[in-house]
Amino acid sequence: MATEYLEHKLALLPDKPGCYIMKNINGQIIYVGKAKNLKNRVRSYFKSSHTGKVAAMVAEVADFETIITSTNKESFLLEITLIQKHQPYFNIKLKQGTGYPYIKITNERDPQIMITGQIKKDGAYYFGPYPNVYAAEETVHFIQKVFPLRRCNGYQGRPCLYYHLGQCLGACFKTVPKDKYERQIKRIKSFLNGNTGQVKRHLTKQMEAAAAKMEYERAAEIRDQIHYIEVTVEKQKIISSDETPRDLFNYYMDKGWLSIQVFFIRQARLMKREKRLFPIVDTAVEEMTSFILQFYHRRNNILPREILLPAGLPNKEISEILGVPVRTPQRGEKADLMSMAEENAQLSLSEKFRLLELDKSKTTGAMKEITDALGLPSGHKIEAFDHSHIQGADPVSAMVVFIDGEPAKKLYRKYKLKTVINHADETASTKEVIRRRYSRLLKENQPMPDMIFMDGGEIQMNAVKDVLENELDLSIPVVGMVKNDKHQTADLLFGDHNEHVDLNPRSQAFYLVQRIQDEVHRFAITFHHKVHTKHSLSSRLDEIKGVGPRTRNKLMKNFGSLSKIAAASVDDIHALGINRPTAQLIKVSLQKNAEVAKGSSHD
Prior knowledge:
By secondary structure, the chain is of the alpha+beta class. It has 5 domains: 4-86, GIY-YIG endonuclease, CATH 3.40.1440.10; 102-232, no CATH class; 246-355, Ribonuclease H-like superfamily/Ribonuclease H (Nucleotidyltransferase, domain 5, 2-Layer Sandwich); 365-522, Nucleotidyltransferase, domain 5 (2-Layer Sandwich); 543-602, DNA polymerase, domain 1. Helices cover 46% and strands 19% of the residues. The chain has 20 helices and 19 strands. Strands 12, 13, 14, 15, 16, 17, 18 and 19 form an 8-stranded mixed beta sheet that branches. β17 (478-483) and β18 (489-494) form a beta hairpin. α4 crosses α11 (315-322). The longest helix has 35 residues, at 508-542.
């Protein structure tokens, strides 16, 4: 049921193509969609009954905006731009990069072969992507042995080790003819395109010969090489006589979930299959279109020569945006592959439903329990902070992030406090880290969390509120995590006067608070230990005459601790390139310090 405010906005919606942006009560963008008719599409969210993810999204909508576009194609492009910029919670979102490596032959006078995840327009040859990273690496090692190019850093006036091993053509000490490289590259391309029969026969003979001589380790090594070739170069049998690079997409939808299958067809083989499962808000066609366009807007993803899609998708617009032919096969082997992809999508979703024992009380449900206890609207993201120092030395802060009850470790942040004069000042420490964190989010126009949790009491909470309200003009709920006299999670503080909010110790909400408090404390302590160890080691070394930053770094890198440096011989220290008098002074100084420390420990 829409509020009166939303009803007024719904009445003003245009019947034109464009994008709509849904926002929650905190003004955060939670969903972006596109429509040929904005009026009909947006009204449908509030005038119809929904279940699952759609109902959850609509329940959080407090406002929306629309952006009109001239054409349907423009709305596609705008939608992808907005999704990538704002990363809305309820949209399908794809990570940057494919996560799979390619084998590359560089475009140089003396070319090399290597593994890369970066695709550039540099004239190089790229093969892949390869789903088995280890097998791809082993195949490159094999190629370097059988079809060597350049494996050294270039001309150095003498043959490199790889030349002596037969794995480099000799660019290290001579000019290698271009036609020699070209012949070798032709063999490599043929091999990577699947013509492996001759190489495999040769390897099989070697394996059998090694086994006959009872050289079983050598035979096993060759057997593994054959296996790597099969999983990298011959992942699938030939499925077509047409070697056009193609990507094929199909999907299956049930109970508000979309199951997507992507087939990568290279060298007439099914090289890789990617599967994705998403709960969705819009129609399957709209969500599939968004997925495909995001898929090719990622970095390091080479467009194929042709894209195959099931019937019902806007092939023309997708083709115009991506710049490659987009077709729906009607018969033959491509249509059979399309059916196979749909069948795999259905099987994946059925398996998901069987295994999907989503205990919501442990994740999303726990979040709902917390917001209900605090009297707040539904939220998804908590950012929690804690400080750490030893008698005021080396003060640090740490932030952890939980989304729907699960830690999002890639979003964790560490802070070395810079402006705090009295390092044991909790108020100053809190103000600095909050100011740095949220002024940056404002500057970068990034979404704010739904709640901020502080490990501590009223002092920290009031410091957070002061910075948010009086300096940054932000309204984010601030919650204090309180511990009892046994240093265990007890309850929460919240509200204008920091009132205690009791949680049932056996509830999932309590367990989640406990987990957040333990995690942010662990993260802060671990970070502080690293900083303090580094500083204490550095400061002790800096006191020794003749030890500057370069010498200190050498010692730290090679020994790692004062005790190990003290235990090292003068010759060991001198071997790092440190002159002997300074090495002797380091040894004597650290031994004296160790004796003083040992004597004081007995007092």
